[in-house]
Specification:
Number of helices: 13
Structural class: alpha+beta
Shape: globular
CATH topology of the largest domain: D-amino Acid Aminotransferase, Chain A, domain 1
Radius of gyration: 21 Å
Oligomer: single chain
CATH architecture of the largest domain: 2-Layer Sandwich
CATH class of the largest domain: Alpha Beta
Helix content: 25-40%
Number of strands: 20
Number of domains: 4
Amino acid sequence: MEDKKKKVLIVGASAKEFALAKKFKEYSCDIFVAPGNSAIEEIAECVDIREDNVQELMEFVLENAIDFTIVSSEKAVKQDIAELFQANGLLIFAPSAVSANIAISRSFGKKFLYRLKIPAPRFAIFDKLPSAVDYLKTASMPQVIRTDEAYEGKDRLVCTTFSTAKTFVEDLFAKGENKIVLEDYVYGHEFTFYVITDGYSALPLTSVANYKFSENGNGGILTSGTGAYTPDYKISSDMVSYIMQNIVSRVLDELQKKESPYSGILGIDCVLAEDGRLCTLAFKSFLSDHDAQAVLNIIDEDLLLLFEACAVGSFADDYDSIKILDNASVSCVVSSRLAGKVIEGLDLVESDITNFGIKRNQYLEYETIEGRNFVLTKTAKTLSRARTHLYEDIDLIKFEGKKYRTDICGQVEIF
């Protein structure tokens, strides 16, 4: 008798969910994505349930005999989907809302780092405009200004002058923000260090070099991500050991003491400062949109078995390391200044494409959305080869208003 296909639900609606859906199709699973988007529905069955409607998601899982749920959506995590599912005997790969608050709330994450005495940039948290403005008068510049929680749109800015910072802070409070985080900008090499954990033991996945600014040379506005490469050759094995012992272990131990162990993928945003210091910037509750495909392409494990081991509690017994392919991945976010423009050349590229929501028109042509359209990722034996082929593929794609950084992985000298 043929083995019954497992049914897997992925919760989220962006590029990282697209990457996950593609990966899990390799395991001959029946893939459902809630809510998904118009691009994801071409490779998986999309379910019309909001990602933060966790009660309805649970009902869907029960009614459709879903075997396993994977949550990459921060909105769902915030609504404590993990606690709800576990209380009802459902298998889920996701951190609890309490444990993930270090990633969801920037102010909480900053205070958490401060309490553990983990080196981080100088920061301040404000819930009133006058106090924030007073702080900015004597603060060192540049200042990174962020909302407490991330959302679509301009929720962050690097300000080099008091007047710019004051204006941005005023705008945030005028829009209804009730808490903002100010932080000294640290010059250096930004990267994310990813681990997978069941809340008690953790293993490194990979390090990812990040490109966050919209323009070449780290100019323009600060975004959630414009490109990446992995593994990050600047992160040595000694640095990996240091991060695991002095950051990851201490963070997980502290969450355990508070009876809120973190289970899932945890990302730690760091910067190697120009003076050699390692500063921890923030936490992430899953892979980012701009690096998800790059990371998934080099993990040489059955992710279904790996994620299930974390969910059922056998992770420490089943794994003593995560196998990583001897490959490298480079990713670049391709955006559009205009909506509704026909995209040509997508069928010509060999790179992996993960979509943010572009869809076909009545003539079955893909059309742009305004802002981020898709992430192109190329994986090869070396970073230089991956980068070369990636930009060759980007050149094949034509549409009016195309925008992307041309310097991703451009300074790599070690291969």
